Amino acid sequence: MRVIKIGGGCLNGNGTIETIMALLAERGKGNVIVVSALKGITDFLVEGMKSALSDEAAIPGVMSRYRSRHTDVARHLIGNRQALSRTAKVLSHSFSQLERLFYGLSFTRESTPRLYDTIVSFGERTCAQLLAAAMQSRGVNAVSAMPHRIGLVTDGKFGDATADLKASAANFDEHLRPLATEDAVVFMPGFYGVGPRGDITTFGRGGSDYSAAVAAAALGAEALEIWKDVDGFMSADPRFVPESRLIPELSYEEAAELAYFGATILHPRTMEPVRLRKIPVTIRNTVNPDAEGTRIRGKSPQPGSVIKSVAFDTGIGLLNIYASGVGARMGILAQVATAMTDGGINIRSVVTSQTCISLLLSRGDLDAGRQALMSLRPRPFRRIEKVTDVALISIVGEGLSRKKGIAAQCFTAVAGCSVNVNMIAFGPSRAALYFLVREKNLRRAVVSIHSTFFSTPRCS
């Protein structure tokens, strides 16, 4: 049995979805298919909540657009009138549930984490029901298996849940495995599970990859396939480096670092469950399904330079916290970290000196992070500086920390293109070195590093 994950980028446009259905009819039997919401639907639901909060009269329009998007896909995929009527009844129940939640949100005037997670999970739920119905109309035995019914158990943390693998595996053996017969295609919504108290809890944006990895680990699948709209991981972003190459093989650690430091192909936590169970992962392109793709497993071949890829992330920023004798004052770092945690803010990285603590945060968290720190009493710092015009670059390759001269080559290449490095971190990971540059210098830095390790050195 394999677990196949289909991303929202692939579920975009009736023609593309029809191509995927044909592939699944041929290759999906006996497997579990984890699906994202149709492209753009999660954002639509988030905006729908804002509309419901501001004006109850907006809800019918929100629901009309949500229904139309899914029924339009259904009409395209399902030619049989009777099958289409049956599908409409199934989807109608889901639409009614969602509409009641929107009205409940409007009535209470409060978007709680519990309600938020429940509403945004409907994109995946409706998609799974729709695709199962479309597959049935093709004469294939297909079912949808909802995580809250088959028992994908989480720790109950809203918006950033973690799966309980042991409990989920026991539940899947009872409720999911019997559905995945040799002639059946099982569609499972990604993105969410159910907490200990029965609440819907999501894994965060892009969390359907993690859901698929959890399902593969819990079922002891022979492999996990991630179907995307790209061939796989590349040695650099082709928009910056047209000559970038497909990476045929990565280790779990290399893939995790690339996902965390900017390569958007996988959710950063996808590797956790499959690495634990030693399940191989393959990235495949839905429009080119027989292409080589990228294979991910415990170890991968190392090129002579060790470097596999140069990745970047522009969605970050810095909070520089200035105080005298930071390195010698006991407890100040703990105060800062506690304030961030209490504010629900994740610290991506931290670097300290005697006079400054630099926090690397997601750019959208900078203002909230500053506010959380300013609320500390007494304030353990002199001032806070917010820096937004930076980008994070990472070079990734297992064995990087053991290979002499890699860091020197990297920074020599960057300096040779007149790019200044703002902050460096090397050592916490055996497979990654990362540093900050000004965002205006990002393209030059990426091109210079990639050309140094993969071709002829150049700046742009």
Features:
Carbamate kinase, 40% helix, VC0802-like, Alpha-Beta Plaits, alpha/beta, 460 residues, eight-stranded mixed beta sheet, 3 domains
Folded structure, characterized:
- This is Aspartokinase.
- Belongs to the aspartokinase family.
- One of its GO terms (biological process) is threonine biosynthetic process.
- The chain has three domains: about 1-225, Carbamate kinase; about 310-315 and about 390-455, 2-Layer Sandwich (VC0802-like), CATH 3.30.2130; about 320-385, ACT domain (Alpha-Beta Plaits, 2-Layer Sandwich), CATH 3.30.70.
- The protein has 15 helices and 18 strands.
- The protein has helices spanning about 15-25, 40-55, 60-75, 80-110, 115-120, 120-135, 145-150, 165-175, 210-220, 250-260, 270-275, 330-340, 365-375, 405-415, 440-455; strands at about 1-5, 30-35, 140-145, 185-190, 190-195, 200, 225-230, 250, 280-285, 295, 310-315, 315-320, 350, 355-360, 385, 390-395, 425, 430-440.
- An eight-stranded mixed sheet has the order 3-4-2-1-7-9-10-8, sandwiched between helices.
- The longest helix has 28 residues, at about 80-110.
